[in-house]
Amino acid sequence: MLEGIEVKDDIPRSVIEELRKKVEQLKALGLPDEDVKKFAVNFLEKRGFKAKIVAKSVKISNIGRDVEVKKMVTVKGKVLTLFEPKSDKILQTGLMADETGVIRFVLWNGEKVSGCVKPGQTYVFKNVVVNEFAEAYQVESTQDTEIEKCKESVQVSKPRELTGVVLAIAGGLNVRCSECYRSISESCPIHGNVGEVYTLDVKMLLSTTDDDIWVVIPERVFKELTGFDVDIAIEKAKKSMDKSAIVKEVEKYLVGRVITIKGPYVEWGKYKALHAESADIPDVRQLVVEKLKEVV
User: Fold this and answer.
1) Hey, what's the torsion of the CAs at 263, 266, 271, 274, to 10 degrees?
2) Cα 140–146–150 angle (5° rounding)?
3) Which residues are CB-neighbours of 12 under 8 A, at least 6 positions away?
4) What is the β-pairing status of strands 271-275 and 212-217?
């Protein structure tokens, strides 16, 4: 009876029974489900209970297959990556995934979305609408969208293990808005001078026996691989006035080496990359660590 309605308070059995009878009467009259839910919310609020409509929870793989475009849904997934917004109308956009698939999300600016998201964290996106973009499905925020961070992490897809030769390393230190996480040079076009955070965004081009694949290297994996973290990257960038300084130093020792990468392979539209959960070069790891410590 209360499916699709979220109530934070405990409701007495007498109130539930009264609401049940009224809901049955409305359904018998052929009233649409959404109108019945609105009635139920109003009914509960008039009796002092906080209630709201929450769209049905679905797996990402069901979007576009069992869930049509323009339908409201609730999805739970891990944010894999953020894309740089090409418009100030977009607050955040990126890819999220659960154990069944990957989908793009768009959080529109000005819709009072409750909270921003960060890569590597798991969230529940309540009341987002399904849409299509670049011949692929995506979910977008609405005036009713709420985002909740989850303590438990979602298992994405089964990790792949690839071994290949490092062809190139790209990226470096990035300065981001502390609110929306977009790259900034001075102030954020959305939030102004609210604060900044530094991230180390590194990609590696790996040549395998099958193909050349871009690999996203998170800060944790970069530190495990080289011994250096974002604080050292900041220090080196200040000394050299070059945000990519730490990557250029690492590149000298890693390009041309054989490396083993393990993590989920992410594909959405034209975006294709392996997101590293671990990376290992046993024969040169210590060399990289010791050599770069000498130049810091």
Assistant:
1) 10
2) 105
3) none
4) parallel
Please give the Cα distance from 266 to 3 (Å, whole number): 33
Lookup result for tokens 């995934």: 97
**187 token code pair:** 């102030």
Determine the straight-line distance between the first and last CA of the chain, rounded to whole angstroms: 64
118 is written with which tokens? 């960060």
Give which of 104, 107, 109, 96 is closest to 138, Cα–Cα.
Answer: 104
Q: What confidence tens digit (pLDDT) does each residue in 9-21 have?
A: 778 888 888 888 8
Q: Which run of H or of E encompasses 294?
A: helix 285-295
Task: Compute the distance between CA of residue 248 and CA of residue 121 in angstroms, rounded to an integer.
Answer: 29
Query: In a 10 Å sphere around its CB, with 0-12 CB exposed, 13-18 middle and 19+ buried, how is residue 227 labelled?
Result: middle
**Distance from C-alpha of 240 to C-alpha of 242, rounded to nearest angstrom:** 5
Q: How far is CA 69 from the centre of its chain?
A: 21
Contacts of 45 (CB under 8 A, 6+ apart): 51
Closest C-alpha to 140, from 176, 103, 85: 103
For 87-141, how does the pLDDT look when each residue is reduced to its tens digit (9 = 90+)? 889 999 999 999 999 999 999 987 666 668 999 899 999 999 999 887 788 999 9
CA 289, CA 250: separation in Å to the nearest integer? 9
Q: What does residue 79 show for φ and ψ, rounded to 5 degrees? A: -75, 115
DSSP three-state, residue 273: strand
Give, in order, the Cα–Cα distances in Å from 294 to each of 115, 224, 288: 42, 18, 10
How many other C-beta atoms can be found within 10 angstroms of the C-beta atom of residue 160? Answer: 12
* Residue in this structure with the two tokens 């502390």, named with its chain if needed: 178
Considering only CA atoms, which of 101, 102, 142, 100 is closest in space to residue 125?
A: 142
Cβ 91 vs Cβ 116: under 8 Å: yes
Name residue, tokens 């590293």: 276
